[in-house]
Amino acid sequence: SLAAPAPWWRSEENMMRRRSKILLGLVFVGLVAFVAVRHWQADIGERLFARGVEARVGRDVTLGLADGLHIGLCGTGSPLPNADRAGPCTVVIAGKRVFVVDSGEGGARNISMMGIPNGKIERLFLTHFHSDHMDGLGPMMLLRWTGSAHKAPLPIHGPEGVTAVVDGFNGAYTADFGYRVAHHGEKLIPSSGAGGAAVSFAIPTGPSVIFDDGGLRVTAFPVDHKPVMPAVGYRFDYKGRSVVISGDTAKSSMVEQVSKGADLLVHEALQPRLVKLMTAGLEKKGVKNTAQITRDILDYHASPEEAAQSAKAAGVKMLLLTHIVPPLPNRFFYPAFLGDAARQYPGEIVVGEDGMFLSLPAAKPTIERRKLL
Question: Which of 247, 209, 243, 251 is nearest to 228 (CA)?
């Protein structure tokens, strides 16, 4: 005769037993793994570190780049503290030649972490002499010098006044330069290559070519950052591709004029509505000095909407926003930061982030984007 089926509760009990055994097994395996990791943590850590060294140390992303212009954001922040953004800093690579615009705090570190060898930096261009655009000059000069045994200082271009800035940094680092040479030797880091060498140009009243070599042309132009004077932006042209970097500026017809026909406009941006919320919060907490500063900064920066208007007027292919004010906790806040910018400009608007890298190949009209951090 056929056996009677087991009662349903017996089946449920068996399932519960199996689940308990599985759970206990998982707990046991987890405990064993935990004990093993704790016991061999040093050895595991060293092996993982060795793999990381093999993958990242000495990395050079410039070797595989197609001929053209390439833009790396080594710093998209401002004087307002932001854990995710270094001070203003932009890398421009023309072919295989590496240039930097501005040198905010943390910029040189980010260049290295992005896989762009600091030793390959050929020249640096300063837009103006606000502290956040030059307070990273010390590490920039040092890492470039020691990274490739340079025998001449880093050329630092800027409008009149740049000589005093560079001389000041060289003076502050004089003792450090001596320590480095004494420790590592002249052959490894020649003393003649320490620091920077100022390359001053007259304050331009309009677009002025300040560097033209090997197919790369750099044009400086005045921008409106009053009372900060001089203040300039730069346009880079190479093999049919072009990038304009605004520097710090209020909405500027000069930026629009110089950006005509450019592929990419890298423009600073401050969102007044969010800054006003910061001001109100500071006032409420009684931090009146900083509250007044946040009021003052509204009149010499461009909003995302105004940057978008300039991008439309110039007819550029893409607008890339940098020098982000106020600090944004994460990407969730980008729409609030952008406001109505998308209504002002039909092209693509990108909120810049540290480590962002854009390629403009000479052979085609595209703009390719990726992250190196």
Answer: 247
